Amino acid sequence: MIGKILKSSTGSCVNRIKYVYGGKKHDHDIANIKTIDTNCLAFCPEIGMQKGSVEDLSCMILDMDIAMKLKLGEQGKPKRTLKPIFHAVLSLDAGESLTPAQWKIAVRHYLKLMGFKSTNKYASVLHADTGNEHVHIVASRVSYESGFPMVSDKNNYEKNVQAVSEIEDMFSLRKAPRPEESWNITISSREVEGAARAGTMPYRSRLAAKVGACIESTRERNGDFINFVRALKRQQIYVHLRYDTDGQPKGISYEFEGRVTSGKTLKKARLTFQKLTTQEGIKYEPSMLSQLRAELSKRNPASKGKPNAAEQRYWVSRGWIYLYFIPVNTTRAPFIKLKVKKTGAQVRQEIAHEEAMVLVEIILQILAALFGAAVGYTSKPGNPRVKGYTEYDPDEGFPLLAYDQPRGIQKELQLV
Fold first, then answer.
1. Longest Cα pair distance anywhere in the chain, in angstroms?
2. By CB atoms within 10 Å of each CB, which of 59, 105, 298, 305 scores lowest?
3. How many C-beta atoms surround the C-beta of residue 116 within 10 A?
4. pLDDT class of 310 with cuts at 50, 70, 90
5. DSSP code, position 150
6. CA angle 13, 84, 8 (to 5 degrees)
7. What does the CA dihedral 272, 110, 19, 123 come to, rounded to 10 degrees?
């Protein structure tokens, strides 16, 4: 069995309830939708929906939403956006099935371990028209109790894994691989399609496999975090750490092929800094910090001395290179933000470092020609989450060049 928790939604449950009952555009046949269990007043809205009536469905939505509305009425506008709707999916392996009575026991056991009580409104809906029998669970996190407390979503991931494991044991279901036992990660259909067009494996699959292999080789050598970082660099993967207020590492990201992916995003169950040091056997001591920082600063594992600062001069994200160009010697020249678009082939094939550096140097030459060499410009990494960039497409004119002289230099700027 696989248990998946979807993101909590804000406001009403209307979209979730309509989705699981086939009231929205949906790939499930409404005839194969069945209410397994609910404590809402409208017990089986699918019966009315099959006859063309949505009255019972609307009643269920109102019943589930009213606790949230009462909570807002009592407390006024909350300090944070309220996310009262919980949505999870329990999916059986192909060929397995449970009776409605068994599903009802499984759903109630799951909700109990996730922290829900009888004072929380919920509905569980079976979809049996695909190769994998599965149940959607939609529940209100707001309880019908004094003060309308909300079910905590802290440690939901760990609680979900534990609940699924107990349900598998309860009904002798095939054990799904635990996330902490496998390097496999969930890949979206968009990632699969993009990889297919590029003729390669999905990016995150390649990255996770490489990081996993480095963990295993480090363990075999009884190595520490510094050995792990060195092993990653031999695979052209560079580590970025986040630090707490005491200056000690608390988070990790992996840079590979010009992209930076956090350990939490890549595989929360195994590849975060905490999991590496407490679960995966990668040893780290606070006394290693200075040596670790020195190791992280070396971009090339074979190089000696200080890292090349030029390697930090660009930021590649989703088909764009982001750069800041900052005047050094005068305030009369403009501060320039530039993002340079790659061609379709280049979007599918990450840009090489050397090509990016050629682009940076050419742009610096153009700025010197426009504003004078005495001004002096330096390039800094851009931030794709900051607005205000000027867009440059190599198929169009460079925005800072005069119209009577663009094509020669523009051809040099084209990334190949």
1. 80
2. 305
3. 20
4. very low
5. B
6. 80
7. -150
Dist. CA 19–CA 401, nearest whole Å: 52
pLDDT at 304: 41
CA distance readout (Å), 175 to 132, 164, 168, 178: 15, 9, 6, 8
Q: How far apart are CA 216 and CA 397, in angstroms?
A: 50
- Please state, in angstroms and rounded to a whole number, the distance separating the CA atoms of residues 184 and 187: 9
DSSP bridge pairs for 5: 88
3-state secondary structure of 337: strand
| 189 alpha carbon, distance to own chain's centre | 14
Among 69-73, 279-283, 311-315, top mean pLDDT goes to 279-283
Q: Look up tokens 């092993």; give the residue.
A: 231
Amino acid at 228: F
The set of residues, in sequence order, having a beta carbon less than 8 Å from that of 274 and lying 6+ positions away, is: 250
Residue 258, CA distances (Å) to 118, 199, 299, 322, 344 in order: 50, 18, 13, 12, 17
The CA-atom distances, in angstroms, between 397 and each of 122, 392, 401, 405 are 58, 8, 8, 10
- Which helix H or strand E contains 99, and what residues bound it? none
- The CA distance from 243 to 252, in Å, is 9
Pair of tokens at residue 167? 């349900």
Residue 330: what pLDDT? Answer: 56
Q: What is the pTM of this model?
A: 0.51
For the beta carbon of residue 333, count every other beta carbon within 10 angstroms: 19
- For every residue of 10-69, DSSP letters joined together read SS-SHHHHHHHTT-SS-SS-GGGEEEEEE-SSS--HHHHHHTT--HHHHHHHHHHHHHHH
CA dist 415 and 150 (Å) reads 53
Among 118-127, 248-257, 369-378, the minimum mean pLDDT is found in 369-378
